[in-house]
Amino acid sequence: MMAYIDENKERLGVEPICRHLPIAPSTYYEARSRPTSVRGLRDEELKIEIVRVFKANLHVYGARKIWLQLHREGIRVARCTVARLMRELHIRGTTRGKAPFTTTPEEMAHRPEDLVERDFSADRPNQLWVADLTYVRTHSGFVYVAFVIDVFSRFIVGWQSSRSLRTDLALDALEMAIWSRKDLDGLVHHSDRGSQGGIKWSSQHLVMEVVRDGGAGASADGPRDDESMRISHEAIYQALYVQGRGALKRELVACLRTGRALRVPRARARQRRDGFITPEVMISARPAEVEDRAVPGHWEGDLIIGLDRSAIGTLVERTTRFTMLLHLPRSEGYGTQPRVKNGPALAGYGAEAVRDAITSTITTLPEQLRRSLTWDRGKEMAKHADLSIATGLEVYFCDPRSPWQRGTNENTNGLLRQYFPKGTDLSRHGPGALDAVAAALNGRPRKTLGWKTPAEALNEHLLLATQGSVATTD
Fold first, then answer.
1. Are the C-beta atoms of 191 and 132 separated by less than 8 Å?
2. Distance (Å, rounded) from C-alpha 26 to C-alpha 32?
3. Do 283 and 396 touch, CB atoms closer than 8 A?
4. What's the pLDDT tens digit per position in 100-128?
5. For the chain, which end, N or C, has fewer CB atoms within 10 Å of the first or last residue's CB respectively?
6. How far apart are the first and last CA of the chain?
7. Spatial distance between the Cα atoms of 229 and 226, rounded to a whole number of angstroms
């Protein structure tokens, strides 16, 4: 309060401000004329020492470590005092791990109307549901939890947990609620404006499929202003452990695409044999038309690695998101002959095998759809010069440790992990199975394509190209 008056007294005056605050002007003047207390003087001295220790330790020490360091230097102070003064100084130590986040609003997405108009009350069950996401800190990381609450009974009618945020997390919770409550006439489902990346279906698909089938209404914005709609961590724990009979870990691992209970860090090799990559084929030399996605025919590629050095190649067209999968069978003698240094790659994804697989697959397309190919820096593309001669593709390579430069392909690989999980033998999938998976992805509506499928988008480009060639001939 004193700080507010100090900031605005020159502009508004002390007396006008005090008329609107529970403080008399005489009280303010007396407080400002009063000498600094012993505690205040002590705090100023301690602030200097706290800042000194904080800077001397690279700005990473928190309240506990600064408190211990001050005690080592003979400065007696309480730990709570150190924490209080650090808050006043607006400094804090570095914490391990990543900061959690729940929802990311997407301003451009369609936003249903607020059907409840901020009135979070219900006269009967299944009249109003509210949904939200939160997180729970565990020993192995953050667990993100989506839950759906019946406003009338405050009962959690649907929930789902995951180690990562995705649209399926919220959709699974809502589908569980719809399954558990059969009579949904007149139901309104209310949620905030969060938007997470989906695997199979997005929230717009839900509006078209799940909610429509249940006869429910969807409402946007969120119950953040209504404190009665908030839920504590204890309630989430009870819902998870009581309903799941303590099987939180098993269900959590089962819903992960990777199938790993813990995230195992993998050391990257500091030196890679990428001498075949020259400045002429770096991504910086790629034409500008590739970035704007206006012209089809520019592809991104990568390998999906499985158990026992098995692999599947992926090709994704940047404009239409059309996907083609490369069958990379193991060569004869794999597993029976001893490995020879600098010998032939028997696992199936050597440079020659990948070159041949890309050539046989990409040449099935017209020439106007074979413009460029962007790959990572893997050794499987050591024969990129031969590939360019055989197919007419201009091959470019990403910068080191920059998978985001092939964002379209990376996102597609994430979708493919649903069909080809990590830790499985990918060599057991034949060409027919790969074609079926590619057809499933190419028949999946995409929001970025205006809810067209990649196959439809590619077909439109082919028709336009055919009509243009016919008109030129006439």
1. yes
2. 10
3. yes
4. 655 555 556 566 677 777 788 888 888 88
5. C
6. 82
7. 6
